[in-house]
Amino acid sequence: MSLVSTHTDTANGADNIVGPFTQMSQTVAKFVWNTAATNIPQDLEWEIVLLTLAIAGLLWFLRGGHGSKGVDGRVRKAGLLQFLLPKDIYTHASARVDVWLWVTERIFYPFWAIALLATVGPATEQSVISVLKWLFGNSPELHSNLAWMLLYSLVTLLCYDFVFFLTHYAMHKVPALWALHKIHHSAEVLTPLTRYREHFIDGPIWVVGGAVSYGFAAGIFGFLFNGGITEATLLNLGFFAVLFGFNGSFRHYHVQFHYPVWLSKWLQSPVMHHVHHSYLQQHHDKNLAVFTSIWDRMFGTLYIPEVDEYTPWGLGPDSQSEHQTFWQNTTGPFRDWYKMLRPRASRGHRSEREQS
Ligand SMILES: [Zn+2]
Ligand SMILES: [Zn+2]
């Protein structure tokens, strides 16, 4: 059977539209299971690392050695090697902790992906198709062309970006979630591995967001075309894997990569994530989306930095010492949750005593 053939054999062809996520879920589950079984963190692609280094090398040339930041988050002039791979950043304790947090997160990630991507994705997709069928009747069975496929990619990107923005917003504003997300922000230096610096129980939250957004867009377009978009969905996912890979790597790199200000109002440039990792008051909770600046603009969290703006990374002098080692970061959320519950108990105890 052809990969793109998802039409059913029912009389009107629209009774039982099978969306691409449902069709792919088995393949994804098998692929993810193989990854989990081999247990090797393997998603930092060499091509993306080389592309990051090549663009950084070009910036070094164009700016005459300026434009990379040191451990303190200040811009400094450097020779090519120190510009691309500065010793003080890559031998920093924070960069070593990145490695161990990456390994731990990669070990757990496939299990969340099996459990959620293959269930939440198809469930969202089928729900969207059912609602659209209820609202509009049978599929209009549109014929897909390049323009429709580009629109499908754009809608998927906006859905993903919006769900990412909302999830990230909640991670910053809800104290119990901040206790988890803080591990990403406890990085004192930025390296391409920092993007994977997450607590291992963070995985399900991000995976559900991805599955819901991809499933939502796939449901809409699966309905419009009466299925038949599995190939386009696979291309879409491949496109996002590359975009996400490059974006994630350069966002977490000490070299500043600015876009012109007008473009930064629409797309997040990598240096805008330097701001997100800064502990300065004016940088708190800014630039929360991943690809576009649209949602940050709408919710008032957009911050476009000046060229060479000072961005000291980490949690800041007050709480950095509690999140320095791998062990501190791994146990951090549990300690924070315990502290959140304990004062309430002691407050209750105090008020009891005050009453008596
Ligand atoms: Zn954040
Ligand atoms: Zn980050």
How far is it from the N-terminal to the C-terminal residue, by CA? 77 Å
How would you sum up the major sheet? 2 strands, antiparallel
Helix/strand/pairing category: mainly alpha
CA-based shape? globular
Helix content: 55-70%
User: Unreliable segments (pLDDT under 50, ≥5 consecutive)?
Assistant: 1-14, 35-42, 349-356
Q: Count the beta strands.
A: 2
**Number of folding domains?**
1
Major beta sheet, strand line-up: 1-2
Order of helices and strands: HHEEHHHHHHHHHHH
- Cα radius of gyration in angstroms: 23 Å
Indicate the proportion of strand residues: under 5%
Q: Roughly what is the average pLDDT, rounded to an integer?
A: 82
Quickly count the helices.
13
Unique ligands: zinc ion
How would you describe this structure to a colleague?
With 356 residues, this protein is mainly alpha-helical. It has one domain. 61% of the residues lie in helices and 1% in strands. It has 13 helices and 2 strands; from the N terminus they run ααββααααααααααα. It has helices at 20-38, 46-62, 80-84, 87-90, 93-136, 146-173, 175-185, 203-224, 230-251, 261-264, 271-276, 294-298, 326-355; strands at 68-69, 75-76. Strands 1-2 form a two-stranded antiparallel sheet. A hairpin with a 5-residue loop joins strand 1 (68-69) and strand 2. Helix 1 (20-38) packs antiparallel against helix 5 and helix 7 runs antiparallel to helix 13 (326-355). The radius of gyration is 23 Å and the shape is globular. Bound molecules: zinc ion (2 copies). One zinc ion (ZN) binds next to helix 6 and helix 7.
